Amino acid sequence: MELSSIKDAFDRVAKKQKVYSSKSQDVVDQLGREIEQALATIQSSHNPSTPVDHKSVLTDLKVKLGAIGALQQLEGSQKELNTSLTKYQKLLEKLLNTDISKAYRNVDFDTHLVNQIIANYFYHEGLFDLGDSIISEAGEPDATALKSQFLEMHHIIEAMKVRNLQPALKWVSDNREQLVQIGSNLELKIHKLQFVEIVQNGTRADALKYARTYLAPFASLNKDEFQKLMGCLLYAGRLESSPYSELMSPIHWEITTEELVRQFCTLLGQSYQSALSVAFAAGVQGLPTLLKLANVMAAKKPEWLAMKQLPVSLELGKEFQFHSVFVCPVSRDQGSEENPPMLLPCLHVLCKQSIIKLSKNSTRTFKCPYCPAEATVAHCRQLHF
């Protein structure tokens, strides 16, 4: 809500700025026209047949410029704009509370795990010197377990930036079985990039040989794609002016590089986004709610600092919803095939046995434990993780 209010206020200020800028430009243009007209009149005085009194011309110009009231108009517009900017600044000061320390709560952290997460973030981002510094200062030598893996990943990425696919091809070849098991077609995409490079910069014979060796195994499952690639052979060396010029777009390299990083992290058992970046992004989204809650419970600060569970839910985006294991918030039982999680019409989730108890063995409607909405067992849907 705060961000929406800030955006609306910003849009209003930006709109006024455009209007006042246009008005100011009109005033300046009007002044310019009057001055140019007076200048043209003075210049015509060089003609003996039409003598002109320079003093009277300047006097008339002064009167016209005074009638325009340029200074008053510009000052008026500037004052109105300054007023809007001042209101916007006050709104920012009101809504953007920089003192986030109020949302702090006493939470026990596993120091070893936190150090590992921080180090892995830097390794994940290719900042190996920073990761090593964190490990050295924290005295956590075991936290470097993934460093060599991420070194390999960034070596592949750096090579792909200069259109060198050999490290990537070697990696997909070494991990072919694992990639097939997760349904990845990354190997085909990398061979496709290499084939297009050969078609454009090599000979038709080299491209055909590469296709027979590396693309043919994928042909039966990717007929349309294979036919398109074979059509490229007709335009060897001039692919940019062919119907297949789209294949040369840098976007294909970007997409394939991103997918390689995703698959690399998947095989490592790591998330594509580091745990630290996900936690930070989720914290930013949840911070406004935490600050409001901290203000409400300001008189009960000891209770706020000691509570193990928040009394309100934090609404985060779908990208922050992870459900590898579901625990019923009512019964505290872990979901299973016999007691699966069920989605209520209000979008809260309970285990099946909890719903049966609340509905008195499916004989009546029941109220959701977390909101005023009512539902029946028939309206609940099973979720599959």
TrEMBL record:
Which ranges carry the RING-Gid-type domain?
Answer: 328-371
Metal-binding: is it a keyword of this entry? yes
Cite the GO molecular-function annotations of the record. ubiquitin protein ligase activity; zinc ion binding
Provide a GO CC annotation, any one: nucleus
- Presence of the UniProt keyword Calcium in the record: no
Identify the keywords attached in UniProt to this record, alphabetized.
Cytoplasm, Metal-binding, Zinc, Zinc-finger
> Which chain positions lie within coiled-coil regions?
none
**SUPFAM superfamilies attached here?**
RING/U-box (SSF57850)
- Source domain of life is Eukaryota
Q: Which residues form the CTLH domain?
A: 149-206
Q: What's any GO biological process attached to this entry?
A: proteasome-mediated ubiquitin-dependent protein catabolic process
* UniProt main location, coarse: cytoplasm
Where in or outside the cell it occurs: the entry states: Cytoplasm
Q: What residue intervals correspond to the zinc fingers (RING-Gid-type)?
A: 328-371
Task: Kindly give the InterPro entries that the UniProt entry links to this protein.
Answer: CRA_dom, CTLH/CRA, CTLH_C, Fyv10_fam, LisH, Rmd5_dRing, ZF_RING_GID, Znf-RING_euk
Protein name as it appears in the record: RING-Gid-type domain-containing protein
